[in-house]
Design brief:
- Strands 2-3-1-4 form a four-stranded antiparallel sheet, sandwiched between helices.
- It has 410 residues and is α+β, with helices and mostly antiparallel strands.
- The chain has eleven helices and four strands; from the N terminus they run H-H-H-H-H-H-H-H-E-H-E-E-H-E-H.
- It is rod-shaped.
- Strand 2 and strand 3 form a beta hairpin.
- The protein has two domains: 199 residues, Actin-binding Protein, T-fimbrin, domain 1, CATH 1.10.418.50; 103 residues, Alpha-Beta Plaits.
- Helix 3 crosses helix 5, helix 7 packs antiparallel against helix 8 and helix 9 crosses helix 10.
- About 10% of the residues have low confidence.
- It comes from Chlorella sorokiniana.
Length: 410
C-alpha cells in the first residue's frame, strides 16, 4: 500500500458531504493514488479534455491556480496535488471564492511543486495580498490554467454586451460581476507575469553558475588529459630505456659468447701443447734409458760409479709424492723425479689392460737397491708394482758424489 499523501483527511472532510450516499467511500489507499475513474471514466483524450476544463473551472471560480496537472492526474502521479485539486473542487462547489478563503490558498501553495534552488531567496512579496511570491513554475502553471478561462469569460462578456442588457437589470448586474471577475483574473495574471519577469535574473544567475561549473569541469578534464599525456610520455621513455638495456644485455651476451669461444680455443691449444710435452718427456725417458743401458754395458767393463737409477710407475701423483717423500726422508734416495703422462698397456690375469700412470725416476746407491725395493713395495697400492734399476756408469762427478753423500751407506 502506497504512503497516504499529506492532507488526505482534509480531502475526505471536504468531499464526503457532497457525495450522494457517501459513495464511493474515500479511504487513504484510494487517495494515495487517486484513479481517474474516481472522477470520470472514458478514453484518455476525453479524460485530458475533461480534466483541463475542470481545472479551468475551479481556477476561474476560486480565482487561484490549481496545482494539479491533467496529465499527471491521468497517470496517477502527484497525489498531493490531486488531493489539493479535489479540496478546491469541493470549495468551488460549496460557495466559490467566498467560501474557499485562506484554506484553499494554503492548500494550493502547500502542494505546489517546490521552486528551483536559488530562486526562492529572490522572490518578491505581493504588496496587495501580503503573501510570499510563488516560484516561476507555479506562476507558469497559474498562467496556463487562467488564460483559457479568461479568454472564455471575455468571449462571454463580449457576447453579452453585444446582445445588450437593460441598465439595472439582473442581466446587467451579472454582466458587471463577470467583468469584475475578468478584471480580478487579469490582475492575478499580471502579478504572475511580474513574478516571472522578476525571476528572470535569478534564472540567468543560475545559468551563469552552471556555465561556470561547466568551465571548471572542462578545465579539470583538460588537466586530466594533460596528466594522461605526461604519463604516456613517461611510459614511452621507460620502454625506450628498457629496450636500450635489453640491447646492451644482448651485446654483453654476444661478447661473453665470443670470449667463451676464444677460451675454448686456448684450452684446446693448451691440451695440444700438454700432449706434445708428454710425448717429448717419453722420448727423453726412452733416450735416457738407452743411455743407461749403454752405461751399464760400459760399467761392466769399467767397474761403474756406485749410483743406480730406479724406475717405479704409480697410479697417481698422490701415491708418487708419498713414496718419493718417504724414500728421501729415509735416505734411500737422493732425488726422485715424478714424470706424468704415461700410458701403460699390459697383460694382467689374462686381459689386456690400459692405465694412465706416472713414472718415478729415483737416484740412489747401488747397494741400497734391495732395501729400496722392499720399502717401495710396502707403500705401493699395486699387488705387483714395477721396480727396475740400471747402473749409472758415468756422469758429472760432483753430481754422482752428491747422490752418494745424500744416501745412507748400504
Amino acid at each position: 500500500m502506497a504512503e497516504p499523501p499529506a492532507g488526505w483527511e482534509a480531502t475526505v472532510d471536504a468531499l464526503e458531504p457532497l457525495l450522494p450516499g457517501g459513495k464511493p467511500r474515500l479511504t487513504a489507499e484510494l487517495l494515495a493514488r487517486p484513479p481517474f475513474r474516481f472522477i470520470f471514466d472514458c478514453d484518455k483524450e476525453a479524460k485530458l479534455s475533461y480534466l483541463t476544463k475542470l481545472v479551468e473551472a475551479i481556477g476561474s471560480t476560486l480565482g487561484q491556480p490549481v496545482p494539479a496537472r491533467p496529465s499527471k492526474i491521468v497517470a496517477g502521479l502527484e497525489p498531493e496535488a490531486t488531493n489539493a485539486m479535489l479540496r478546491m473542487l469541493a470549495a468551488a462547489a460549496t460557495g466559490g471564492a467566498k467560501r474557499s478563503g485562506s484554506a484553499v490558498s494554503g492548500a494550493a501553495s502547500r502542494y505546489a511543486p517546490p521552486p528551483p534552488a536559488g530562486l526562492a531567496a529572490h522572490a518578491s512579496d505581493d504588496s496587495e495580498a501580503g503573501q510570499q511570491a510563488e516560484a516561476p513554475s507555479v506562476a507558469f502553471q497559474r498562467v496556463d490554467n487562467m488564460l483559457p478561462a479568461l479568454a472564455r469569460q471575455c468571449g462571454e462578456a463580449r457576447s453579452a454586451l453585444s446582445a445588450g442588457a437593460a441598465p439595472g437589470s439582473h442581466d446587467a448586474l451579472a454582466l458587471c460581476e463577470q467583468v469584475a471577475g475578468i478584471a480580478r483574473d487579469a490582475a492575478v495574471l499580471a502579478r504572475s507575469l511580474e513574478q516571472l519577469l522578476g525571476a528572470a535574473p535569478v534564472i540567468a544567475a543560475e545559468a551563469a553558475a552552471w556555465r561556470s561549473e561547466a568551465d571548471k569541469l572542462a578545465a579539470r578534464l583538460a588537466e586530466e588529459e594533460q596528466g594522461e599525456a605526461r604519463a604516456a610520455a613517461a611510459s614511452a621513455r621507460r620502454m625506450a630505456d628498457l629496450d636500450a638495456q635489453l640491447a646492451a644485455a644482448r651485446q654483453r651476451v654476444a661478447l661473453a659468447a665470443a670470449q667463451r669461444y676464444k677460451a675454448s680455443r686456448m684450452l684446446r691449444a693448451l691440451g695440444s701443447r700438454a700432449a706434445l710435452f708428454q710425448r717429448s718427456t717419453l722420448v727423453a725417458v726412452r733416450r735416457q734409458s738407452a743411455v743407461q743401458q749403454q752405461g751399464t754395458v760400459m760399467s761392466a767393463a769399467a767397474g761403474g760409479t756406485g749410483v743406480s737409477l730406479v724406475f717405479v710407475t704409480v697410479p697417481s701423483a698422490e701415491v708418487g709424492r708419498k713414496i718419493a717423500n718417504s724414500l728421501v726422508e729415509n735416505k734411500l734416495a737422493a732425488c726422485v723425479n715424478i714424470i706424468p703422462g704415461l700410458v701403460s698397456i699390459y697383460s694382467w690375469q689374462g686381459k689386456i689392460e690400459s692405465d694412465a700412470e706416472l713414472l718415478l725416476k729415483i737416484k740412489t746407491r747401488k747397494q741400497l737397491l734391495p732395501e729400496l725395493t722392499e720399502h717401495v713395495k710396502g707403500l705401493h697400492p699395486y699387488d705387483e708394482c714395477e721396480v727396475t734399476a740400471v747402473d749409472v756408469t758415468g756422469g758429472s762427478p760432483s753430481y754422482l758424489a752428491w747422490v752418494l753423500d745424500s744416501t745412507k751407506a748400504g
